[in-house]
Amino acid sequence: MKLEWTERAIEKIKGKIQHGGRILLKYDTEGCGCVVSGVSALWIVEHEPEGTVQLETNFLPVYIEKDNAVFFDEQMTIDFKKEQHTFQLKSPNQMLNPHLRLEN
Length: 104
Known about the structure:
Layout: E1 2-5, H1 7-14, E2 22-28, E3 39-45, E4 52-57, E5 62-65, E6 75-81, E7 86-90, E8 95-103
Parallel strand pairs: 1-4, 1-6, 2-5, 3-8
Antiparallel strand pairs: 2-3, 4-5, 6-7, 7-8
């Protein structure tokens, strides 16, 4: 899997990541009722979580849980929309999350 950060997204997230921080692209199912109703989110973590794989990116290391990789596309982009003040996760095929949360 490949994940590309836009320049806007890089500028916005730079100040939020501490030295050595990593990002987990999480497929969060808590409170969703069903595993296929999950929501993607960005989690800032200190260490690479167990059971994850590193995505190929043009910026910071990003990890994804192996078991949840099926819910993501092979090529994805993280953008930042200034008008909505939010990150977005999209692929050439679809908008995966127009309001991508960033959790620290």
